[in-house]
Amino acid sequence: MARFVSSFGVMRLLLAMPFLVGACTKPPAPGPVVSPKVAPIVRAPSCGDAGVLLRGSVPDEDKLGKMKEELISKVCSDDTWDAKVLACVASKAVPAECLAQLTETQVTTYEAKLAAWHEQYGYGTGEEGGEEGGVVGGQDDPPPPDEGDWVACEDAVKHTAVWLPPITVTGDDRTFATGLRDREMIKLCNVDEWSTEVRTCLAAATEKTTVGCLIQLGASQQKSIATAITKADKLATKSIQLAAKPAKVGCKQVVAAHYSDAKWKTEAVEVKGAARKKLVDESRKKMTKACTDEKWPAAERACMIGDGSDACYGVAGRSSRWGFPAAGVMLKIGIPECDEYGALLTKLSACDKLPDYARGSLLESYTQTAMYWLKTSAEDRPAVATSCKSASDALRQSGEALGCSL
Q1: Contact assessment for residue 44 and residue 86, using Cβ atoms and an 8 Å cutoff
Q2: What are 210-245's pLDDT values in tens digits?
Q3: Alpha-carbon distance 401 to 21, whole Å?
Q4: Contact 211, 53 (CB under 8 A)
């Protein structure tokens, strides 16, 4: 019984007035679908990237840091560093190790230019200034974070499109590919426990400085990032290539793949007969309408059809909407008090004074909780009925405060 009461507790929180009244910010609608173009998802590392990764720790990041990056980038370009060297710099936890792959002349020029730069700007190597060339262990220790300071991974992970290798596609394809990366990086940030310093650095970084923050991570963490980015980019490439064939990635095909008869065989098995058919039909109709009205981008649709993993749905925050049944599909569970609660929710969702965002959350929560209630044992049904009655009373009060007649 505790599980059902707990599920209901979540529902009651969603019914709280601050949520209903304050959730007036409607999420931005996705941009229009553009004709996808098959193009490389990423580009090879450049001399500019090498400048960012090799400059190491610099006292004045905005001024001296940028100057040093430009110097290294120019030396790289003028001396035509090999692509293998640049690839090494972009993949190593200690980028300076890759300089051993340069020719003797290139190394001599690089060291001479940097020595002259350090002499001019009074920033040396060794214990006082941190080792040269991006060696992690030689960087100045960052100042300790303020007590109680915390940056969530969701706030730290951004600008991943320029993380190496940078994403080259544009428009909706770029948004989609970046979204896949973001999800993977947020998971890694949490699982690998990126330090507060790294998360703080990333949260404050711009597109030009974000890659430099990653140098502070350990070798194993950087290897995990490279592996995850490769995985996300492969899925993006596959999806964008499939999206180049519009006839194969329509909303009809998305619904057919996601809500196929085969998948329904193991879902919502507690619902039988005509009620089950209604559940399936309404779920398919809701998804078709959402895909059409919201103009889901071609690459995202292709991902849902060709791969079908949670990543495809989560990139646009759609995963929780398309369970079995779809969020917002109302079903009767045979407990009168709970069925009355569902009917009241349906009425409230039709009230034009209720913000769209709140409406979607309430219906989504109801659908998920109702599926738990369907499994309620005879022994637990009275307790669930009592909870539903309390919820109905609270809902009437909330509706009245909003000016919605229930």
Answers
A1: yes
A2: 988 998 888 889 999 999 999 999 999 999 999 999
A3: 9
A4: yes
